[in-house]
Structures are given as C-alpha cells and as structure tokens.
Amino acid sequence: MFCPFCRHPDSRVVDSRTSDDGTSIRRRRQCPHCSRRFSTTETASLNVVKRNGVLEPFSREKIISGVRKACQGRPVTDGDLAVLAQRVEEAVRASGTSQIEANDIGLAILPPLRELDEVAYLRFASVYQAFDSLDDFEASIATLREEHAGRPRTTRSVDE
Prior knowledge:
By secondary structure, the protein is an alpha+beta fold. The protein is built from five helices and six strands, in the order βββββααβααα.
C-alpha cells in the first residue's frame, strides 16, 4: 500500500474494523517514512462469469434491476429489492469463491424472491429454470400449492 502523501511503498496497520454489513474492512494505516496516517477500505472482490465467458464485477444494482422486471406491477418496494440483493450477495459470498457463474446468481435469487412474492418468483424462475412449456409452469404452481396446503391458514377480518 503506497502512502498517499509521500508515495512510500509500505505502511503499518494501526487499527482495523469490520464494516456494519461485514463486507469490508476499514484499516487505519501509518507511513513509516513520513509518519502520516491514512485510512483504507478493503473488500473482497467477487467477479461474475457471464455466459459468453466475460468477467465483470458483482453488482447488487444488476440484481435489483433484473428482479425489478419480474416484480413489475407487484406490491414490492425498492427497500424489499435492496434487502433481497443483500441476501443474494451474502449467499454468493458465503460460497467462498472469487468467481461465480451468472446462472448461479440467478438461481441464488430464487429462494428469497419466492419468500418476497410468488408471482414475481414464477416470472423470474421461468427464465432461470428454463421453463419450456406450460407443464413447467403448472409443476411449479403445483409445488407452491402443496406448500400452501401444509401451512396453517391465516384469516383476515373485514376490519383489517
């Protein structure tokens, strides 16, 4: 790490702190040459391998924009999408790899999206699980219905 003041090629770490979301580390450093202090923020890089083989940095914004299309017309807020993108990033980073296939990210989106909105889940799943026919949609809907049958029903009163 070069000192930003004197360009000395070394520095000493004085203090380290993890960010609130746990994705980066803030380090306070001191230059042994000029004794000035400066801060750095370090994050682990995560690259996405696109279908054509090109690498690009992971982006929560790309997740949000892709899921937003599936959620169009649904009661899903921007805050909901931000939380979903954070959950997906945490799941992807938990794999411990520095590169991940774009399709694997799409598949990682499915469980939290299913919890958020089932219609948006079906829209998104039709692309990432490569639905070829109505039978694929019907099978997915049947699975959702079976899960709903196993849950206790909640009833709402007219006043709610």
